[in-house]
Design brief:
The chain has six helices and two strands, in the order H-H-H-H-H-H-E-E. A two-stranded antiparallel ribbon has the order 1-2. It has a single domain, classed as Orthogonal Bundle (Lysozyme), CATH 1.10.530.40. Helices cover about 65% and strands about 5% of the residues. Helix 1 (about 1-20) crosses helix 2 and helix 2 runs antiparallel to helix 6. It has helices at about 1-20, 25-40, 45-55, 60-65, 70-75, 75-85; strands at about 90, 95-100. It has about 100 residues and is mostly helical. The termini are far apart. The mean pLDDT is about 90.
Length: about 100
């Protein structure tokens, strides 16, 4: 079931974000997949976030996630995702460090 849900999320990201996936790094793509897994197709619901992602303004895009209903529902994961969007680094829970 999880595998099917993940595949569905990947398909939605490819459909909704195909215009920038070629230039987007894998870490930021993973955030889009994670957000899609939680919310389904969400690009139209976050127009400012989307615009900033398209223009590569990742700091501004990350700020659009904080304080949203999504952020309130998933808490720390939304904060981590915003940091990944901003910095392009993944957080490793096992050693509590950010990696390139």
């Amino acid at each position: 079931m999880l595998k099917m849900d993940l595949q569905k999320s990947i398909h939605i990201v490819q459909r909704d974000w195909g215009d920038i996936l070629e230039i987007l790094d894998p870490k930021r793509t993973a955030v889009l997949i994670d957000m899609t897994y939680n919310m389904g197709s969400f690009r139209a619901k976050f127009p400012k976030f989307s615009g900033y992602m398209v223009s590569g303004e990742y700091d501004s895009a990350s700020k659009q996630l904080i304080g949203t209903k999504y952020h309130k529902q998933v808490g720390k994961r939304a904060t981590r995702n915003a940091c990944i969007i901003r910095d392009g680094k993944m957080y490793n829970k096992s050693n509590h460090k950010w990696s390139e």
